[in-house]
Structures are given as C-alpha cells and as structure tokens.
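Milestone 3.1: sequence recovery, worked example.
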C-alpha cells in the first residue's frame, strides 16, 4: 500500500490495571473534575501507592472555583471565602461552559437558572465563552478551567514533594467532541500531560471490579451517579479473560461499558436553587423589604449558601431551619421547611434525576439473570426523595429484576470515581507496572461520514467501544483529492451548546502521485482510517492507496533424479535337484582376482560361490 498525505481543514479499553509496581520515582494524578467540586488521587511509589489529595486545610475535595480580587487570583477555599461578598468576581460552574458557543440557549439558560452574576461575552474568533474580571481583564473559559487544574496539580505536588505532569481527567457522559477538546486545551495551559479523558462511570466501574476475576461467568452492574450538575447511569458488563503474568497462565477480570443515559441538568444544585427561590419569596414578602433579592447577587449568594446546610439537615430530619443574618439591608432572615414540603416541591426534579436509571433498565442490552448490583454514587443519592424515586424505578421493573434486588453502596459514593481515575492513570503511565484488568469505555455519540457529494451515512454507532479504528473504503478513485466530512449522527440529539452536527472536514490528497508511479499499478482502491482515541476524539489519522506490483523471477527447471536400477532376479536353487548345481556352474563366467600375479580364481562350490555372486550383484547395483 502506498502512503498518502492527510490534511485537516477544520477542527472538529483495553486497559491494563491493578496492583502497583513502581518503576521509577515519579507520580501521576487521577482527577475527578466535577461541576461544583474537584477531587484527585495521587499515585506514587511508597507504602500507600494511591491516596486522595488533600487541600491546604486537610479537606479531601476543593471547589471548582476561581476568584479575582484586588489583583490576585484566588483558588480553592480562598475563592469560596469571597463568594458571598463578591459573587460577580468569582467564577464557578465553568466546566459546564467548556466547548459551548456563547450565544447558545444552553449557556443562557445555565447563567440564568443558576443565578450566576459574573460577566461573560463571546470570544471574537471562536464564539466560545469568555469572562471579564472587575479590572477589565478577559480570560477564555479554558484559561479559567486551567487555573483550577493547575491548583489541583500544585496540591498533588505538595503531597508528593515533586513535579507531576501526567494525569487522567474524568469527563461526564454527555461531553461531546468540542467539550473534550476544550478540557484538553485547559490541561495544556496548566502544563499537564493528559494520558486520557475517561468517563466518570467507567472510573467507578474500574474501582468496583478491580479486585474481582469473574471466573464464574459474566456479570452486569448498573452505576447511577447524581452530582451537583447532572445525573447519569451506565450498564457495564464484567467478565474474565485468560492471559499470562510473568510467563504463567492466569485469569484476569475486565469490563466494558455497554450503554449510558443521562440528564445533564438534573443535578442536586437545582434543588439548592429551588430552596433559595422558595425562601427568597418568603423574605420578599416582609413589609420592610423593598427589592426582589433574587435580583441582588450578593443577597441571593448568601441565600444559596445557607440552603445547602438546610438541604443536608432535611436528609436526616423531618424539618430543617435556615438562618441568615443581614440577608439584605441589615434585615435578618429565619425560617423552617419540612421534608414533606420540600419533597412536594421537588417531586418533578426527583423524577428527572431517576430517569437515567429507568432508561438503562429498559435497554435490551440488560441481562437480568446476570445483573448483580445497582451501585449509587454522588452526594445527590443521599437525598431521601431521590432514593424514593430510584426505588420507585426498581418497583416498576420488579418482575424483570432479580429477586430482592436493591440499591447498593459497596463503593465510597464521593471518592470512587477519583480512585478509579487514579487506577486508569497508573495503567496509562509508563512509570507503573500493574496487574491486568481490561477496561473498555464507550463513545457517547454516534458519528457519520460523508465522502465528497455522496450521501452522509452512519459510521460509528452510539456506545461503540472507545479507542478504535474504523476504515472508510473507496473504490474506483480517480480524483487526486478526496474530501471527507465527519459529523454527529443526525438521528441523535446534539451535545447541549453544540451549534451544528459537523465535526470536521478533511482533504486526503496524493492519489495522482500514487497512480503515476511506474513501480506499481494503482487499483483504484483507497482506505481512509478514522481513529477514536483515548480522549474520545474522532479524526482522520491516515490514508492508503492499494496498489499491485508485478515481480519477475527466474525459475530454474529441476533435473530429474536418476532412479536406482531394480535388483536382478536371483535364481532359486531347488534343494531336491542336485543337477541344478552342475547347470549353474556351467552357466557362470569364470572370475579372477585383481592383483599383480593375475592368477585365475579357483572354482568355488556350494555357499562360497553363491556368496561371491551376491556380492558382485550388490556392487553392480551400487555403481
């Protein structure tokens, strides 16, 4: 095959995991980048090869937040500390703005529904989101996210006491191509080398299965996660495969993500907003209040912070108080709410949050005889109303589910994804040698391909295996240049905030040069390879032209082998007839010995004469 050049015109597992054997004094990070908080695990040589990274105050998570105040950039707890005093100087929920166009309805709804008061505008070149600080400095959303990633890197390096560059970063199931490209750009700005972008529930799957071998057959598990920004679920198959370790046969475990479902706005943060709006109406009803505090960023920021504690109390109690001193114009606010009232208000939201689990259980890919667990992840799954909605989904599928199937909590619901990310990072790094555990993530969106003016056709199905190569085969190619377009499948919904289905345009050239080469004959067949890499990005990697070449070789004719002459027939003496001896003696020629004397040999009788005759015949046959 002859190589061809590939020019991109417009931007658009089997993993091996397990017990650590460090090869050098280095470290990697697994980063669980959530919409509200960020957690990381440090994988390094030592007695504790994998551990949660703590911040300056010993907390096992940090806010995904950046603040700018008095010319300083504030991160983590420092940024959280000024959030209620200067809400327009603190940038949060920035992960949800990555890879989205500023004028999209998604961005507008996010800023409005979450009451985010910081100023944003469109990037003049890329049309994506930019933010502006109080002093007028502008930053791309990738630069803001890079600050958060760099902060986590610094925490890891302080704990490791050395430099760290290699990381694995988690992404939610609904992240499309542009969102993944944006987070890679942010990581690059932060000086990080991304070993891979891994789905959040794929990380949880690894953490759940890494210590199992599944030698008794395939098992299925469902993972459900409700975080601050979204809810999602995944169906995962676990099985075993045979391999070798240190030259000896061994059985290892593996998993494959079969299907995913999500609601990318049904997170627990909307419950905070719902409570804040409820109490804002109570406060606005006071005679002394002259303004709607929902329009006053500082006052509403105080209320949003207070209702978080109220929501937590309601998870364990039938009633919860709220108290905010000097909410606005030095007016204090105190109130209570019952769990019954809260659940009545949030019923629709609870149903939305549980819908991904319902979608997975309705999938034809579920084998209920193999289903062994339904694992809960995320802080939102501790809310009684959410648990009730999830149990309601199980009740609706009672006839199909295994007997006594319940919701499970075998994993740490807050840190399982972060630990899974650390395991992925250890595997992908060349620093660590680990026990095998196969891991295959899935693509979230299908991809179509169009060649020239031909019809666009589905090429990669939704929930296909991640990290794969697909081949576009073209026949009877005569043009020197081939235009190839990649796009999302038009029968599926687009990632929110994505303006069009198009992913990228490619120009494959060099066909004429291959056809003009006299060394071989061009068959007219061209193969274009589309890669889906470890980051879930689809792009044209390489292209080949199929050629035929005639090779002339001199062939020497083999000479026939000389066959051995058949042995002469030997006369058989009749022991009953003595006359045979006399006749035989008369017929035989006289033989003499070679030598200087030239004497004639004497006649031999009986067995001596027969022996001499046999020896002569054997000698003649050999010649």
């Amino acid at each position: 095959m002859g190589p061809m050049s590939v020019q991109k015109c417009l931007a658009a597992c089997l993993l091996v995991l397990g017990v650590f054997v460090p090869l050098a004094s280095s470290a990697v990070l697994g980063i669980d980048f959530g919409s509200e908080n960020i957690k990381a695990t440090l994988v390094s040589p030592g007695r504790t090869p994998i551990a949660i990274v703590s911040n300056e105050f010993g907390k096992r998570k940090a806010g995904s937040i950046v603040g700018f105040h008095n010319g300083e950039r504030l991160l983590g707890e420092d940024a959280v500390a000024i959030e209620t005093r200067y809400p327009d100087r603190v940038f949060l929920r920035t992960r949800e703005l990555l890879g989205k166009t500023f004028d999209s309805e998604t961005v507008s709804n996010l800023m409005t529904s979450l009451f985010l008061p910081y100023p944003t505008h469109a990037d003049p070149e890329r049309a994506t989101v930019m933010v502006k600080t109080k002093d007028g400095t502008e930053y791309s959303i990738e630069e803001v996210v890079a600050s958060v990633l760099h902060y986590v890197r610094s925490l890891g390096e302080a704990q490791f006491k050395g430099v760290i560059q290699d990381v694995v970063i988690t992404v939610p199931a609904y992240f499309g191509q542009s969102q993944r490209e944006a987070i890679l750009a942010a990581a690059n700005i932060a000086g990080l080398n991304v070993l891979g972008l891994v789905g959040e529930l794929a990380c949880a799957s690894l953490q759940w299965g890494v210590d199992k071998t599944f030698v008794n057959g395939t098992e299925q598990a469902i993972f459900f996660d409700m975080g601050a920004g979204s809810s999602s679920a995944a169906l995962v198959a676990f099985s075993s495969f045979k391999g070798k370790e240190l030259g000896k046969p061994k059985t290892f475990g593996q998993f494959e993500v079969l299907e995913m479902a999500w609601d990318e706005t049904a997170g627990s943060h909307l419950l905070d907003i719902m409570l804040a709006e409820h109490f804002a109406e109570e406060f606005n009803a006071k005679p002394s209040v002259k303004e709607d505090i929902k329009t006053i960023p500082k006052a509403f920021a105080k209320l949003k912070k207070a209702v978080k504690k109220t929501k937590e109390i309601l998870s364990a109690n039938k009633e919860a108080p709220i108290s905010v001193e000097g909410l606005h114009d030095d007016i204090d606010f105190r109130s209570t709410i019952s769990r019954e009232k809260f659940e009545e208000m949030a019923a629709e939201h609870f149903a939305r949050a549980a819908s991904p689990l319902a979608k997975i259980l309705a999938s034809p890919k579920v084998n209920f005889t193999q289903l062994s667990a339904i694992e809960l992840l995320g802080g939102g799954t501790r809310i009684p109303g959410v648990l009730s909605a999830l149990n309601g989904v199980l009740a609706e599928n009672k006839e199909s589910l295994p007997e006594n199937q319940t919701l499970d909590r075998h994993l740490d619901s807050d840190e399982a994804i972060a630990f899974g990310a650390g395991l992925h990072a250890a595997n992908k790094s060349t620093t660590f040698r680990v026990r095998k555990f196969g891991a295959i993530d899935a693509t979230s969106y299908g991809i179509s391909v169009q060649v020239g003016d031909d019809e666009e056709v589905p090429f990669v199905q939704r929930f296909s295996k991640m990290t794969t190569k697909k081949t576009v085969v073209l026949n009877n190619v005569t043009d020197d240049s081939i235009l190839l377009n990649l796009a999302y499948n038009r029968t599926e919904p687009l990632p929110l905030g994505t303006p069009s289905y198009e992913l990228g345009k490619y120009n494959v050239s060099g066909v004429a040069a291959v056809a003009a080469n006299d060394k071989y004959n061009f068959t007219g067949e061209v193969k274009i390879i589309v890669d889906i890499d470890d980051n879930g990005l689809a792009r044209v990697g390489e292209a080949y032209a199929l050629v035929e070449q005639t090779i002339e070789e001199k062939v020497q004719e083999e000479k026939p082998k000389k066959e051995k002459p058949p042995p002469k027939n030997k006369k058989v003496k009749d022991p009953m007839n003595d006359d045979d001896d006399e006749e035989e003696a008369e017929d035989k020629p006289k033989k003499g010995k070679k030598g200087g004397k030239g004497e004639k040999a004497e006649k031999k009788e009986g067995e001596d004469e027969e022996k001499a005759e046999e020896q002569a015949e054997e000698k003649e046959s050999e010649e």
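Residues 141-160 form the longest helix (20 residues). Residues 41 and 186 are 19 Å apart (CA to CA).
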